[in-house]
Write a structure and sequence with these properties.
The complex is a heterodimer of chains A (113) and B (109). Chain A is an all-beta fold and 113 residues long. Chain A is built from no helices and eleven strands. Helix content of chain A is 0%, strand content 50%. Chain B has 109 residues and is an all-beta fold. The chains are: A mainly beta (113), B mainly beta (109).
Chain lengths: 113, 109
């Protein structure tokens, strides 16, 4: 399968713990996006990369959040000192630069107790 | 007011009915996307359009750029069409998606 993959699919953690999610995009796609979706809502943009450069960050991305894409391939999203409000589905999508369609991964569902 | 508004938020219909979901947006766009999300979270792109009309099987998407409005139609609806349908728009440059809140569609047999 050469689609977008995310790991883990589910994560349950206690408030105050750090968590890290991984996204592996489609190999030839140089744009990678992170979105967050809370229950009953549409997804919201968090950040995006063109190759290894992080080009835009939403103001939703507080200083507890950090994202990297060190070699322009996979990306990680880390949340430090998790809060219950961080509970959501975290979605990753990749895109070939000149084309508009984004391809989504299955998401990581985070539950903060 | 959200930049992308969908209606209705919930829609229940009987198998075979013609379905219409509407999307209005208030910003300039380079493309409008219709996405499908099944329980469990996976999102699949159905259409990406910047003008006119596209058709794929029983699904039809239209857009009116002047009115900033798009519709998604499903003909001969089937229970397997039950899902959340999300409208999203992308601008030029970053092309990040701005999403509507989604329409939960339930098709009863």
């Amino acid at each position: 399968d050469t689609g977008v993959s995310q790991d883990p699919r589910h994560k349950i953690t206690k408030r105050g713990q750090n968590v890290t999610f991984r996204c592996d995009p489609i190999s030839e796609h140089n744009r990678l996006y992170w979105y967050r979706q809370t229950l009953g809502q549409g997804p919201e943009f968090l950040t995006y990369f063109q190759n290894e450069a992080q080009l835009e960050k939403s103001r939703l991305l507080s200083d507890r959040f950090s994202a990297e894409r060190p070699k322009g391939s996979f990306s990680t999203l880390e949340i430090q000192r998790t809060e219950q409000g961080d509970s959501a589905m975290y979605l990753c999508a990749s895109q070939e630069s000149l084309l508009n369609e984004q391809f989504f991964g299955p998401g990581t569902r985070l539950t903060v107790l | 007011k959200n930049e992308v508004e969908q209606s209705p938020q919930n829609l229940t219909a009987q198998e075979g009915e013609f379905i219409t979901i509407n999307c209005s947006y208030s910003v300039g766009i380079s493309a409008l996307h219709w996405l499908q999300q099944h329980p469990g979270g996976g999102i699949v792109s159905l259409f990406m359009l910047s003008s006119g009309k596209k058709k794929h099987g029983r699904l039809i998407a239209t857009i009116n750029i002047q009115e900033k409005h798009s519709s998604l139609h499903i003909t001969a609806s089937h229970p397997r069409d039950s899902a959340v349908y999300i409208c999203a728009v992308s601008g030029s440059g970053a092309q990040k998606l701005v999403f509507g809140q989604g329409t939960r569609l339930t098709i009863n047999p």
